[in-house]
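Module 6 notes. Inverse folding takes a fixed backbone as the condition and produces residue identities as the prediction. Think of it as a translation problem where the source language is geometry and the target language is the twenty amino acids. Below is one complete input and output pair. Work through it position by position during the lab.
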């Protein structure tokens, strides 16, 4: 494989970095910080598709649909010199299937400073919007934050985590920024990227994957057309999802619903081997098997899918070394 500009990173290390950025964000005042780096904004934008595809192929286990969909959408968007709207992706699936991981990869391979870039903005309901009673203030702050940063730097990435834990009502302030109007509030915003992450639709995706397995269909035969309707319905019927009555889905402002399939035993094994390699350790069979034996699988009869995906692999390995 050809060398890449910044190299492939491990699932555990990138999620660890994402956690550090989220913790640091806890101290942020959304109304006090602005992108103030002037023309540096475009300079910080350094797309490395070769590195991204290398990392996805090497580390994102079992997600043929998500990998292909994200790379195709991202390439088309970035290579368009005059996009008519921002790129808006909504990632859906069971816990530990790679949603946060792929989001961290986008930051890493799009911006020179990755998740530390001043133009990558990560929002968590628990950290940034914890009190439903303060929703009106959150709306004002979020609108000001997005508008201010896009005014200074159109090449910005906005990550919204745990959308299924976000009090409905907040996202409606983003609706004007996500469509195909040329200018919003005096801000040119068409080169921005918005990523929304949630577990909503995960159960429905799991059911489609289980039925495919029971029908002896190959996992790679599952098509996007089978999953989009069930994900859409799960979101629209969930009054606790951040998109609830926001107009974002009703007005078709999402460019893609990205499904993440549940992970099987061999996918978890792949994650264990990757993590051992990242630690500079040999792939010892007894360690790999011990991690797999400590992982819970479902449904009860088939024991097919990992309950936590690969989410706890990095933290479990040290117990068996």
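Target side of the pair, the amino acids:
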């Amino acid at each position: 494989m050809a060398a890449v500009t910044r190299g492939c990173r491990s699932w555990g290390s990138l999620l660890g970095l994402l956690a550090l950025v989220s913790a640091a964000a806890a101290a942020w005042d959304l109304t006090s910080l602005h992108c103030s780096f002037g023309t540096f904004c475009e300079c910080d934008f350094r797309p490395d598709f070769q590195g991204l595809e290398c990392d996805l192929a090497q580390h994102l286990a079992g997600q043929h649909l998500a990998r292909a969909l994200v790379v195709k959408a991202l390439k088309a968007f970035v290579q368009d010199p005059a996009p008519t709207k921002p790129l808006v992706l909504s990632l859906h699936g069971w816990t530990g299937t790679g949603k946060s991981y792929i989001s961290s990869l986008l930051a890493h391979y799009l911006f020179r400073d990755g998740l530390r870039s001043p133009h990558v903005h990560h929002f968590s309901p628990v950290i940034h919007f914890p009190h439903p009673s303060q929703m009106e203030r959150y709306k004002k702050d979020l609108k000001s934050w997005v508008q201010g940063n896009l005014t200074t730097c159109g090449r910005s990435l906005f990550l919204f985590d745990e959308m299924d834990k976000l009090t409905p009502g907040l996202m409606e302030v983003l609706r004007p920024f996500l469509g195909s109007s040329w200018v919003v509030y005096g801000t040119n915003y068409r080169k921005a990227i918005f990523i929304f992450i949630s577990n909503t639709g995960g159960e429905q995706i799991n059911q489609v994957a289980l039925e495919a397995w029971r029908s002896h269909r190959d996992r790679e035969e599952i098509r996007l057309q089978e999953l989009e309707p069930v994900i859409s319905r799960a979101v629209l019927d969930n009054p606790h999802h951040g998109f609830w009555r926001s107009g974002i889905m009703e007005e078709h402002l999402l460019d893609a619903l990205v499904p993440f399939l549940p992970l099987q035993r061999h996918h978890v094994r792949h994650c264990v081997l990757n993590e051992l390699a990242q630690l500079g350790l040999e792939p010892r069979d007894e360690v790999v098997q011990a991690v797999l034996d400590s992982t819970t699988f479902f449904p009860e009869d088939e024991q097919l899918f990992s309950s936590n995906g690969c989410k706890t692999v990095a933290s479990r390995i040290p117990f068996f070394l």
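Reference fact for the lab report: Residues 1-5, 19-41 have pLDDT under 50 and may be disordered.
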